[in-house]
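PT: before anyone asks, these are the final sequences, not the draft ones from last week. 644 residues across everything. Please model them as a single complex and drop the result in this thread when it's through.
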Amino acid sequence: MTAESQQMIAHIVELIRKPNVRIDENTALVSSGLIDSMALVDLLQKLEDITNMRIPAGKVQPKDMDTVAKMFATAQRVGKPRK
Amino acid sequence: MSQFQNLVAALEAAPADRPFVRFWIDEDEQETVTFGEFFSRARGQAAMLRGEGVTAGDRVVIIMPQGIPAMTAFVGAMMQDAVPAFLAYPNFKVEAGKYSSGLKGVTTNLNAKAVLIDQAFPDEMLGHISLAGDAKLIRAGAAVAGDFSAASIPTDSLAFMQHSAGTTGLQKGVALTHAAVLRQIAYLSAALKIDGAKDRIYSWLPLYHDMGLIACFMLPMVCHVPVVMQSPLDWVMQPEAMLQIISDHKCTLAWLPNFAFQFAPRRVPQKRWAQYDLSSVRALINCSEPVRASSMEEFRKAFTAIGLKPHALQSSYAMAENVFAVTQSEVERKSGPACVWADGQHFRARHKIVEIAPESPGAICFMSSGRLLPNHQVQVISDSGAILGDGHVGEILIKSDCLFDGYYNRPDLTAEALVDGWYHTGDLGFCLRDELYVVGRKKDLLIIGGENIYPQDIEEIVGNHPAIHDGRAIAMGAYNADLGTEEIIVVAEVAREESLANSIEIDREIRNQVVAGMGIAVKTILLKPPKWIVKSTAGKPARSSTREKLLKEHPELNIEA
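LR: through. Structure below.
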């Protein structure tokens, strides 16, 4: 697992505050009810910070943010260099 | 009163060259149509629908992503004197089977002639579409060119159908005539002093919701006001876009549910606020959830430095059953909507507003939703049905010449809601000095981020879990002051006490099932031993007594009584 993925997982663990839930790169977050849509903004901002890219929300669907692996794939696909 | 016979005539009368809808995806990708282009595209959709056999009075369900094609299809159906209804696009979280059965219920209830989906509707989601009777599935394609003459549309003809809530609620279609919609828009635009040549509306609100459909689509169409629109999903993932769009396009008006007044300042990094300018805004109207003075204050404090005028924050009380607004605060009052500080003890124990000094111990602040629109009446009644005077809290009843005639094909639900011409809203509130204050709900409806959710739908899913005692689950809303909206708390009894040892697993499974069924996340699930939930004399779970018990046992949940 990359350091970036670990950083994102640490952020999610802090966000959901559920000590008993284990999260890895492929844990479903939105479709499992662990995270609701209103928390997506946090994840997108964190993804921008970690990748140092600008990620236009208009090109991202919630399903693209369902796992940590999908988040980084999405950043690769639609991310633009920061102005 | 409106100068137009119907909504299509209002669109046709717009200045053809004036921009109507700018659909914003991101700063590099936007699409704009003028009123003239919009009218022409809608005619093309009308011709296509006519080619598919849609005629006057037919119900047409539209399931398309938020955007100009969905909007032109809607108006195209109206041009045929058909009755369109927007439904929410399938959400990847919701199981195909659940979505499909909800949709089948709606198309059956509406006896829909056609279900219109977009060209890009994913093939793998076609399984979500379930049709009733002889309804036809149509992919909205290229518009049909040629001469299309719009049907003659009588003013008392049904214009469209609004649906306001989740799966159960979807079968409560509110049918509205052109005349009722035009009356509502005439009253509201006068109250807001709308000027099509000067105003510009910003919206991220879904078109299947009354606030998105009436305030941000029908009103600008009739009053010839440009709109800059984005999809709700794009907004929720990047609320900063709201500040950017208002700044770039100098928007003057927007409607937002209460939670958005906190979501924006909390989720847009403070270091970037100074890039934006909100000085163009005349009115940001808090609507669709009970208005919280603290949420408004947070927004005002955050953005005054970037030009937000203090009196730009306004409020309104609205519902699909009345087309939209019942009240609107006075946009030119420099102090903004009225606030009253009331004694919390009197409010909770005696349901009475006793005004006390602001911010004194135990004081609660209520923000007004404004004054009634013309030809609107309100009554506040007690549990026994007695009409209450000023400052007494009870159920809000309304009567107006915009009010619906009933839920489509649902005389049972209509009879419960409409009694002697008065619509029983299920909301709790009080009148004071000619203004209406909305404080909560009598009905069990939850409002999560502006969306109406029926707790029964959640309880059914929870009750179906094998470890849960059938029928012994209660879903309730708990206001989260940090979010400015409610969150869902579920309390459920396990059938056998030893199941509590598997709480983590059961919690996970229930969470998955609620999301799969309804697309929403539950905040907290509390599993309790058998016989924990308080039952009514009829043997059913008693919601309010269970809530009180939960409040006592779990003060950490911070649930309001």
